[in-house]
Request: fold
Amino acid sequence: MQTVEARSVDEVSSDDALTGLLRLARQLFQTPAAAFWVRERGTERLAACLGDEQALRTAYDADLRAKFEDRQFVVLPDINAEEDPFRFKAGIREKLASGLASVTLIIADTKARPPGIIGEQRSAFQAICAQAVTQLELRHSQATQAKMMDRLSFFDRLASATQELEDATAIMRTVARLTGEFLDVSICAYADMHADENGFTITGDWTAPGSASIVGTYKLSDFGDFAVSNLTSKLPLVVDDVIAQLPSDAAATFQSIGIAATICLPLVKDDRLIALMAVHDARPRIWTDAELGLIGEVVERSWAHIERVRAERILRETSRRLNAILSNTREAVFLMDEQQICVYANAAAEQLTGYSFEAMRGRPLHDVVHHKKPDGSHYPIEECPIDRAFPERAQTSGEELFVAPDGSFYPVGFTASPVLDDEGKPIGTVIEARNIADEKRFQEHQVLLIDELNHRAKNLLAIVQGLVAQTMTSSDPEIRKALEGRLMALAAAHSLLTKKNWEPAPLRQLVQDAIGPHVAGHAVSMEGPELMLPSKTAISMVLAVHELATNAVKYGSLSVPGGGVDVRWNVEGDELEFQWQEFGGPPVVAPAKRGFGSKMLERGLAAELDGSVEIEFLTEGVSCKVRASIPRLPA
Reply:
């Protein structure tokens, strides 16, 4: 049922716009009484009245209220009722555009008017009511605008008051005070939920004069099932009157701390109830949607501000530590943004380039230290491998030439890595660089030394071969030939390692080079994984394979047509298993005694390889099994 709010004479007469429209209606229709009723938020009130107010109230309540339909006239032209002071009554109701309010115009006369309202009178009647609607809409618009300005002003004050604060407690204390004052409530409080999502501690509050602080620890369940249901479901708790809306025990809990009406909003993080913010009033109060929305926005803004402050504090601390690390590292570090603009350079970067960070800031690093080639031509950034890391979203590394402030060039080794956001989108590039001029000079010097050493070693081997040839002219030709062959194998292994700067050499190529001169026209198979041997192990394996191949040519499978050799190897952990197996040769007869070659293999090679060598003189062909420890190579 609609309720009508009575208004004082002063309040009625103060609405000059509506009163003026009533005067116009009374003049047009020559009636002694006219009135406007306004209905808003479910409540209807007499907004303006001319004539006998009590008679109009009685007339409206008696038979007009229930008869109205939107945008439809109600006309009672000839009333014959002793209790009604009026014989004629007419009215119209118009809704506001928002549909949330309406205006009703009533005119009444103590004399009957059988014709009612006809013709142009009807249009005029409707126009007067429509004008009243316009006035009310204007007033609503002005009130809404004023509230909006108040709201904006409030949030502006809130932002100004908290923007310099870095402590969560200080932020919430300020938020509670400004929110409580703006909403004119008794208490504004904030609380942290316990892990069980039932207990909570009000860590701070603001109270209006005459209200007591409610700081302390409580249980959500003490405030009733309605509070528990809403807040644990992450819904706001809105109570206009705790006595009227809540069970007696829950209402008593609220009343015990001076609360008659409340809005309590939950703060949810990672699907957990972690905090509460509430405004309370000591008297029952009908909370509006605008107030609920404002408190919700306060909670969101406050928590976002607290999280931002915490994140900034962590970022500052991380930045401080990172700066301390980067400022003391010898590696030059640059940070480029998504436009490849330099936004950071450490002290080592300044020392490397000869430019201060201020001179590089806000410019592409390429334009500062990498803009031209040694021939003086322009170096387009699109061709630069350093800047390629950003668009290709991949790390690049290598060597480039940077340009010094005096125009000279210096070599740098670099690594460029894209910086990606959570979605994998590149947002910048980290560049690490170092001057490798000294390394280059050292490498060049090292190459010269190695070349000279290799040259001298070759000369020494040539001298040894010459001495052997001259010294052993009268010796057994077979012995001299065997010794020369071993020296030649050693020289071949030395040449191969020299080509590779005495770095690890591939086993397959070593075997091929060692047996190549002996296998023409014979079947030779090799099977095994790719394996790099250190230089010491490589020389030992070359001598072993040469010895085996020489014996096979003289006595074994490579001494006759159709004979061959099967070479296999495998690696398990740090151990090499190598097998030489001859086939298709003359029947093998084990020698009566071990010769120099066999002894060199079984003793000397085993010792060099830190393993074992086993030679078997099988009838179908000589077999040699080698087990050797392989040193781990640097990654």
About this structure: Confidence is low (pLDDT under 50) at residues 1-14. DSSP finds 18 helices and 24 strands in the chain.
